């Protein structure tokens, strides 16, 4: 390796982005089609549902309005915080009951938020999310984990 | 029911059969292509085709004209014909691309083949007898990324390609110089090479490189599998509607049709699975064709216990083997006869599966 580094002809040419000289280049957003700028979940509505103890309704509502295709990081972050709040307020014993009321698409969205939650741990949150993870995995298998990584519309 | 064959290869990245299924060509994941012949005493190596400088990415064997085409990351393709002494003679193909060639497929009439490349180009090649060489015509737009897989429509005039830009596209592959103008098919008609006939995004959630595409036997449906563990079918007779099934498995890397409504898909979960399309166009899971039973754990001997403690710091023994015939990713699935198919894998095995016998042994299994 050291010989390469000392080589005066250099290896700088390897760092040139030759693709930039191509026409018709692929851009990530092109692959996703037009985004309709989703606004994310309505925070007041979700919080009201939570205080009324309607946790399952809150979860379904927050997942349905998840702004996954949104490009505004602030919208995504506030939706993430809200979703995590809902997830953490549902007790472990209620998780199975919740999952029976979600369809496969929403379960994939849920898995995306579980992984997002692991990125910003708070006191006790990761343990609870692991409980969620285990139950979601039992329902939708490894496929939904694969989709957390492969989908370009992320949580 | 199944036969596993080993060719002393560490991995098989792709394979193809000759017409009668007595010979197989495969790439052991390097720059060679091995051709084996089946003899009463087992498989015998017939020839090793050495012409490529880099890894062979795709190969296909035209059954009737008995020609092999190979393509490689070295940006070249060769068409191999068998001389009178049985030796394979390569003919270089002018692809005119400056990135790796990733996949190749003979057209049904075997007078053309298509090569997908990392140059965002599909080369449709045909033989120019006046110059005695293979020439290629390019399909460029609107491909935005590497072409990973291809398949021909049974009418010899239409191509489908999957790409790493998360899209599946249907193109006209009609070459004016050499064939009659196409009749209007289910996918429409464009008398120009490279006209886009249809385009499908892999997923509404974005993402997912497309790993394999296949036309149904009638050519009206397209099936594809992608890296988001999905299996999708688009139907031209239903206004190009796409039906998607997000599965619970690891992603599939290959898919073939084994009936007008049945698909076999296999990939990173190492097992071939049978899916069917019902009358409403919905895709449903039928059966796992690898019905190998979970191995009985033979109890823990004291020796095993301490061995396991020593190696893995735990007492329960964990089997290193998967509960499937293939021990690694399935890389390609090929049809061998109407009732047989084969799977090649990174574990170096080539496995033959007999659908008739599987149908008899697995309850509820029906190929439709």
UniProtKB/TrEMBL annotation, chain A:
Spell out the GO cellular component terms annotated for this protein, sorted alphabetically and separated by semicolons.
Arp2/3 protein complex
- Superkingdom is Eukaryota
Which residue ranges are recorded for the region named Disordered?
A: 1-43
Q: Which GO terms describe its biological process?
A: Arp2/3 complex-mediated actin nucleation; regulation of actin filament polymerization
- Major localisation: cytoplasm
Q: Which UniProt keywords apply?
A: Cytoplasm, Cytoskeleton
- Where is this protein found? Cytoplasm, Cytoskeleton
Belongs to which family?
Belongs to the ARPC5 family.
Q: Which PANTHER family match?
A: ARP2/3 COMPLEX 16 KD SUBUNIT P16-ARC
* Record function comment: Functions as component of the Arp2/3 complex which is involved in regulation of actin polymerization and together with an activating nucleation-promoting factor (NPF) mediates the formation of branched actin networks. Arp2/3 complex plays a critical role in the control of cell morphogenesis via the modulation of cell polarity development.
Q: What is this protein called?
A: Actin-related protein 2/3 complex subunit 5
Q: What is the lineage of its organism?
A: Eukaryota, Metazoa, Ecdysozoa, Arthropoda, Hexapoda
UniProtKB/TrEMBL annotation, chain B:
State one molecular function term (GO): actin filament binding
Residue ranges of WD repeats: 49-80
Q: Repeat among the record's keywords?
A: yes
Q: Record's GO cellular component, any one?
A: Arp2/3 protein complex
Q: Where in the cell is it found?
A: Cytoplasm, Cytoskeleton
- Mainly resides where? cytoplasm
What keyword terms does UniProt attach to this protein? Answer: Actin-binding, Cytoplasm, Cytoskeleton, Repeat, WD repeat
| Any one of the GO BP annotations | Arp2/3 complex-mediated actin nucleation
- The organism sits in which domain of life? Eukaryota
One Pfam family of this chain: WD40
Task: State the function annotated in the UniProt record.
Answer: Functions as component of the Arp2/3 complex which is involved in regulation of actin polymerization and together with an activating nucleation-promoting factor (NPF) mediates the formation of branched actin networks.
**UniProt cross-references to PANTHER family, sorted A to Z:** ACTIN-RELATED PROTEIN 2/3 COMPLEX SUBUNIT 1, ACTIN-RELATED PROTEIN 2_3 COMPLEX SUBUNIT
| Membership in a protein family | Belongs to the WD repeat ARPC1 family.
- The protein's name is Actin-related protein 2/3 complex subunit
